[in-house]
Design goal:
Blueprint lengths: L1 E5 L3 H15 L3 E7 L2 E7 L17 H5 L2 H10 L10 H21 L18 H18 L1 H7 L4 H22 L8 H15 L6 H12 L5 H15 L2 E2 L2 H23 L9 H22 L1 H6 L3 E4 H6 L4 H6 L4 H25 L4 H23 L13 H16 L17 E4 L4 E4 L2
Parallel strand pairs: 4-5
Antiparallel strand pairs: 1-3, 2-3, 6-7
Helix pairs in contact: 4-11, 4-12, 5-6, 5-7, 5-9, 6-17, 7-9, 7-10, 7-11, 8-10, 10-11, 11-12, 12-16, 12-17, 16-17, 17-18
EC number: 2.5.1.32
Family: Belongs to the phytoene/squalene synthase family.
Enzyme class: transferase
């Protein structure tokens, strides 16, 4: 489907695209902005099947003359084509599709075998050692992510051990740039960490935490790509302290948090009775990571500024009449409040997107995910309650609120997969853009 509209009527276009998408079982809906023109492009269940199911306007003569129509149709649907027109969301969506395809393939026949006898430090094939390694991962998870750890207790033993192993790897990766030795970390060290990751996936772990991960990736259809992308996020953090626009920030959020969602789904598992497409569940998991990271960024504006970092999109700040200086001075003004309202709204839209997928997970995995989602989402309420002072006041969710969320999470977890056979948004990638005239974020598709 190709819908061309002007930027001012994006909402109309979105509604039209959704309506058409639901009729034609469109699996993917992309937003492309080019030369000030907004185009809607969707493709059918087969990646290469592009069908015209609606038209929000006519392709302008200048676009046709430039041959842009052809370029768009071609470039957007061929991931192999490296094209600057592809937004971060489109590129990340390719990873989502790859992960989903891997699960489908590996559900059919899974042949990866663990070659632990090649392990680098001692004999990690020993069952007792492996079991001790998983226990250590559990202890680390319990120490740093208490609520989540509690939630994992509801999962089967196998699944919870695997989640712990993944969690510990993410934590260690994060510690490289955020931990006590962060000032010594170099891109070379990250390269070595990536090499070590390859070894883990090849069944050659260095230490006991690695051994637990090696075992996990041999048992579940976990792909190395999100792990590598997380390391890429750390590289980005080393060299970049400003983000020009939301597209750049989105990519960063994918690297450091969306990847966690993609790593977790194969282990958490999709409910056997789920009718949702695998892509849509991965998409929801990705959205949860993005939502969490955006929330983290909004909560930590002051703290990050004191480290010389501004993660907020520079173009959106400028549009709101704000600059880095305003952030460094940390004064809550009406301009700041309005700006923050838009940012919070956008983060909430990613949470909304994530919520659609939680009920599609295996029953035992739903509760911890709901619990962490509800808790993290409430940080946004806390920022509002602090009158948007995220410079000197840390937004946090109090113990009572936290406790009250647990039964809510449990109640929601009891609800299984969506009964609706055709969710309008099923499989449709979510994206958010900021309407330049109002600075309010709109979900575009
Ligand atoms: C929704 C579906 C279908 C599946 C769920 C898939 C999962 C588990 C997604 C979760 C992704 C996740 C937990 C990303 C990490 C995001 C994040 C910003 C973590 C913050 O970590 P810390 O920096 O330790 O946070 P605090 O500073 O708040 O302690």
């Amino acid at each position: 489907m190709i819908l061309k509209v002007s930027t001012t009527s994006s909402i109309v276009a979105f509604e039209a695209a959704q309506k058409e998408a639901s009729k034609h079982q469109i699996v993917k809906c992309l937003r492309i902005e080019m030369s000030g023109v907004l185009l809607w492009v969707s493709c059918g269940p087969k990646e290469n099947a592009i069908s015209l199911v609606g038209l929000g306007g006519k392709i302008g003569r200048s676009q046709r003359r430039l041959g842009l129509w052809n370029r768009i149709s071609f470039a957007s649907f061929s991931p192999a084509v490296a094209d600057p027109l592809r937004s971060s969301e489109e590129r990340v969506y390719d990873v989502v599709l790859k992960q989903a395809a891997l699960v489908k393939r590996q559900n059919k026949d899974r042949k990866r075998t663990l070659n632990l006898d090649k392990s680098i430090e001692g004999d990690l094939t020993n069952g007792d050692l492996l079991s001790a390694a998983y226990d250590r991962c559990g202890e680390v998870c319990a120490e740093y992510a208490k609520t989540f750890y509690l939630g994992t207790q509801l999962m089967t033993q196998e699944r919870r051990k695997a989640i712990w192993a993944i969690y510990v790897w993410c934590r260690r990766t994060d510690e490289l740039v955020d931990g006590p030795n962060a000032s010594h970390i170099t891109p070379k060290a990250l390269d070595r960490w990536e090499q070590r990751l390859n070894d883990v996936f090849d069944g050659r772990p260095y230490d006991m935490y690695d051994a637990a991960l090696s075992d996990t990736v041999s048992k579940y259809p976990v792909d190395v790509q999100p792990f590598k992308d997380m390391i890429e996020g750390m590289r980005l953090d080393l060299r970049k302290s400003r983000y020009n626009n939301f597209d750049e920030l989105y990519l960063y959020c994918y690297y450091v948090a969306g990847t966690v969602g993609l790593m977790s789904v194969p282990v958490m598992g999709i409910a056997p009775e789920s009718k949702a497409s695998t892509e849509s569940v991965y998409n929801a998991a990705l959205a949860l990571g993005i939502a969490n990271q955006l929330t983290n960024i909004l909560r930590d504006v002051g703290e990050d500024a004191r480290r010389g970092r501004v993660y907020l999109p520079q173009d959106e700040l400028a549009l709101a009449g704000l600059s880095d200086d305003d952030i460094f001075h940390g004064k809550v003004t009406d301009k700041w409040r309005n700006f923050m309202k838009g940012q919070i709204q956008r983060a909430r839209m990613f949470f909304d997107e994530a919520e659609k997928g939680v009920s599609e997970l295996n029953s035992a995995s739903r509760w911890p995910v709901w619990a962490s989602l509800l808790l993290y989402r409430q940080i946004l309420d806390a920022i509002e309650a602090n009158d948007y002072n995220n410079f000197t006041k840390r937004a946090y969710v109090g113990k009572v609120k936290k406790l009250l969320s647990l039964p809510t999470a449990y109640g929601r977890a009891l609800l299984g997969p969506q009964k609706l056979t055709k969710m309008v948004t099923r499989g449709i990638r979510s994206g958010v853009t900021v309407n330049l005239s109002t600075n309010l974020p709109f979900r575009l598709c």
